[in-house]
Structures are given as C-alpha cells and as structure tokens.
Design goal:
With 246 residues, this protein is of the alpha+beta class. It is 42% helix and 10% strand. It is built from 10 helices and 6 strands, in the order H-H-H-H-E-E-H-E-E-E-E-H-H-H-H-H. The strands form 2 sheets. Strands 3, 4, 5 and 6 form a 4-stranded antiparallel beta sheet that branches. A two-stranded antiparallel sheet has the order 1-2. The radius of gyration is 34 Å and the shape is flat.
C-alpha cells in the first residue's frame, strides 16, 4: 500500500515552477528534448537547456504539445515570437470561438486592399471582428518596402497573417502570451532589438569612434595674416637712461 501510494503521488506531480517536485520533473522532460535533434537549434545542447525548460512551461500553460511549441517558437532580434500558423491553430482549437474567417476589403493591387479577421463566440453566438489591415497601412508602417519583404510577393497571405495576429491579440491575448508573430518581429525590425544586441551595437560604435585618428590642428589657419600691429600689440621700446654731463 505504501508503494502504491507513492506511485500515485508521483503521478499527480505537475511539471512547472510551483513546487520542487514539479520543477525537477520539468527539468527531466527538458533534458529529453535538449538532447534530441528533432527540435530547432535554439533548444539543443547544454547552453540552450534553459530555453527548453521555458518552452515546456509555455506548452503546459497553453495546453499544447511541447514539440509543436518548440518548432513554432522563433527568436528574432533576441526576442521570442510565434509563427503565424501556430497562433491561428491555437485560436481555432481553443474551443471558445469558431475557426477564424476572413473578409477582404478594397480593390486588389491598391493601397485600400485589405483584410479583416473574424470569428463567432460559441457561448454567445456573437460575431467578433478584428481591425482591418490594408496595404496602405503596411506601407506607412514600413513593412512593405523592407528588403526581402514578402508583402510584395505574397500580399494576400501577409494580409491574412497580420489580420489574424491583430485579431487574436485583441480578442484572446492569453493565447499569444504577449508575444508577437515572427512576421511582425521581422517587419518591426530594430525596434525589437534585445538589450544585449543594443548594448553590443553601442559598444561597437564607441570603439569605432575611439579608434579614429584625430585630424592635426593648425592653430595658424584661423589667425589672419594681414592684421597690422597696433599700439597695444607693439612691444614697448626700452627706456633710455640719461647719463651725467661732463
């Protein structure tokens, strides 16, 4: 009976940070993923063991498969972000809303062309809508003209991804856990720089300025050469001493 009770107690341990037993269980699970080659590079190796632990905790909070979370969690400019497909899938499977639908507005090929994401709340039957995202907004925010931007090659897909991300963040923010999508992080660019990256960039700039050779200063270049001497600038003549008269 004692062994059975011990086994039952162990089976009730929930991996997480709330208890020592839960934290130990979480680390054991992380060790398994950390040594796997099926997870992305940012979760492999001893140096990334902490990333594994955090990803497992996020999977538990989202009630999602740990491997799926790791495969859809990206690091952009030092900050974590979700793939748009994963965020949409989480919303569709949460059970509180219907699947996401999209309404297009405006004429394709113009700045007014856009998309709105919406869904129906199951409990109330109410249609919930997100903000409209247009090509004009993408241009004003600087997303459209960035180097390598997919807004120019696949605008309809990007409109849907961005409309869904904004809709989820305003309707069910707990699903995104406060993280942007990978596409958003790339579009925003340097504004998502982490503290370490920003400090490194500043140190490089300071070093570059410090290593510059100062230009020689010619003190004569600012002094006019044709200024006549004045009484104030003339050296006084030595005073003549009158000797005795014989």
């Amino acid at each position: 009976m004692t062994e059975l009770a011990t086994t039952q107690n162990n089976s009730l341990v929930t991996p997480g940070f709330s208890s020592l037993a839960g934290f130990e269980t979480l680390q054991r699970m992380a060790h398994l993923f950390n040594e796997s080659t099926l997870v992305p590079k940012q979760f492999q190796g001893k140096q990334n063991f902490g990333n594994c632990v955090i990803a497992l905790n996020m999977a538990q909070r989202l009630n999602a498969d740990p491997l799926m979370v790791m495969q859809n969690l990206y690091v952009v400019y030092g900050n974590p972000s979700w793939s748009s497909k994963f965020l949409i899938a989480m919303f569709n499977q949460c059970g509180r809303f219907s699947s996401i639908h999209y309404d297009e507005v405006g004429k394709p090929g113009t700045d007014g062309w856009g998309c709105r994401a919406w869904a129906v709340e199951i409990a109330t039957g109410e249609r919930v809508e997100g903000p409209v995202i247009t090509i004009g907004i993408a241009k004003k925010e600087g997303w459209y003209d960035k180097s390598g931007s997919k807004w120019q090659t696949m605008p309809q897909q990007m409109l849907r991804y961005r409309a869904a991300a904004w809709f989820i963040r305003t309707t069910a923010p707990e699903l995104s856990m406060g993280l942007p999508t990978r596409d958003e992080a790339i579009d925003i660019g340097s504004e998502t720089l982490g503290v370490e990256e920003a400090q490194e960039a500043m140190d490089q700039e300071i070093a570059a300025q410090a290593n510059k050779t100062p230009l020689p200063i010619d003190v004569r270049k600012d002094v006019p050469q044709d200024i006549p001497a004045t009484a104030a600038t003339k050296q006084p003549e030595p005073e003549r001493v009158q000797g005795p008269t014989f």
